[in-house]
Design goal:
Distance between the termini: 62 Å
Shape: globular
Bound molecules: ligand C2E, calcium ion
Organism: Erythrobacter litoralis (strain HTCC2594)
Number of helices: 10
Helix content: 40-55%
Keywords: Membrane, Transmembrane, Transmembrane helix
Domain EAL: 23-273
Protein name: Sensory box/GGDEF family protein
Order of helices and strands: EEHEEEHHEHHEHEHEHEHEH
Length: 275
């Protein structure tokens, strides 16, 4: 058995060395990709379920590789985390996204995903504040999405990061809620303004009675605590109706729109304001 850098112990086999080779390759190319402009930020709308208007765009990174085609973040973010590149990459993403957001109407906010490793790196809050300053985006218009895994070790670095940025007006969203271990303690401890109910709760042929009861309970908590509850992964009108009925305030998913390039995001906003 071999310890693979982080937590788990795995048995070594041929498929692992292939995975490792691909990882190494991606790692080397990723460093160059940032400089070569192969990465770009796409934006997916998060919609007010009452009015149908766009309240937020979530920044989602894309890598258009000259040979491998479009690579999904699920494939290269973990590589960036393993190699430490995530700090540079993460700061670049926040800076690019903030520049785009500075062009939107001021009531539209920007959501950016942050890796736990990025948050725990020294000077992490500076990276965010620099991006805001350079883009001249007010901190209130930025929302940072973090997952439950950030709290696996509830470190001092995490606490400092969240408290420092929250004091400046930056907002926080708990992403993929319901997939990890219980995070109610962290919702109690930290100033989250939004909970994103994981896509797994609405996927499947329809929203079951059981799932609906869970979403309803989370939505009720959200209402009590003055937090927005977002349903992720909405693909069908039935799902939109079910989550709205269950009390979710915001929705996101292919039913409304996929993630789109910045110029299309700007067009969607312009269209809304004409009608
Ligand atoms: P996430 O933060 O949970 O983002 C939502 C993912 O679900 C996105 O995949 C989005 O394209 C996809 N999605 C949205 N609506 C639907 C839908 O209706 N149906 C289905 N099947 N999928 C939907 P994407 O862009 O491939 O990103 C995957 C994950 O990679 C993200 O999950 C996030 O954890 C991570 N990620 C993406 N961009 C960044 C980034 O800039 N920084 C960091 N640290 N992580 C990122
Ligand atoms: Ca997210
Ligand atoms: Ca999510
Ligand atoms: Ca996710």
């Amino acid at each position: 058995a071999k310890v693979n850098g982080r937590k788990q112990t795995q048995f070594y086999d041929a498929s692992m060395s292939r995975d490792l080779a691909r990882k190494r390759e991606i790692e080397a190319e990723l460093r160059a990709a940032i400089l070569k402009d192969e990465l770009s930020i796409f934006f997916q709308p998060i919609v007010d379920l009452k009015t149908g208007r766009i309240r937020t765009f979530e920044a989602l990174v894309r890598w258009f590789h000259p040979e491998k085609g479009e690579l999904r973040p699920d494939e290269f973010i973990p590589v960036a985390e393993d190699s430490g590149l995530i700090v540079t990459l993460g700061n670049w993403i926040t800076a690019q996204a903030a520049k785009a957001a500075a062009q939107w109407p001021e009531e539209v906010t920007l959501a950016v995903n942050l890796s736990p490793l990025q948050i725990k790196a020294p000077g992490a809050s500076l990276g965010v504040l620099n991006a805001l300053r350079e883009a001249q985006l007010p901190p209130e218009r930025l929302e940072l999405e973090v997952t439950e895994s950030l709290f696996l070790d509830d470190s001092e670095a995490t606490e400092l990061f969240i408290n420092e940025l929250a004091a400046k007006g930056v907002r926080f969203a708990m992403d993929d809620f319901g997939t990890g271990y219980s995070s109610l303690g962290y919702i109690n401890k930290y100033p989250f303004s939004k909970i994103k109910v994981d896509r797994s709760f609405v996927s499947g042929p329809d929203v079951s009675k059981k799932t609906e009861a869970i979403i309803r309970a989370v939505a009720e908590m959200g209402a009590q605590l003055d937090m927005d509850i977002v349903a992720e992964g909405l693909e069908k009108i039935e799902q939109v109706k079910a989550v709205r009925e269950a009390g979710c305030t915001l929705g996101q998913g292919y039913y409304f729109s996929r993630a789109v390039p910045d110029y299309l995001a700007a067009m969607l906003l312009a269209q809304e304001r004409e009608s």
